[in-house]
Amino acid sequence: MGPTPIANHHTEERWVAMLGTHLRRQASTWLHVPIPTQLRYVLLLRVWLWCNDKGHDAPMGSVCT
Questions:
Q1: What DSSP string runs through 50-65?
Q2: Which domain of life is it from (predicted)?
């Protein structure tokens, strides 16, 4: 008899199922947050990324200064 593989496909399926459950739980927790709050965070993140991308070339008086 040869050595048994450490992770067979059953173990892998179990991990995938556990991860899927965890992600669904995270998603449902996140979805309890009101939509405007989510949008606000997304917009802030986009502005921040855009400003970082522009560097110091942002015009005076813009959101990035």
A1: HHHHHGGGPPTTSTT-
A2: Eukaryota
pLDDT-wise least confident of 5-14, 25-34, 53-62: 53-62
Enter the DSSP assignment of 33: S
Name the phi and psi angles at 49, rounded to 5: -65, -40
Give the start-end residues of each E strand in 1-65.
none
Question: Do 47 and 65 form a contact (C-beta atoms < 8 A)?
Answer: no
Quickly state the pLDDT bin for 56 (edges 50, 70, 90): low
Amino acid at residue number 37: T
**Is 3 in a helix, a strand, or coil?**
coil
Number of other CB atoms surrounding residue 38 within 10 Å: 12
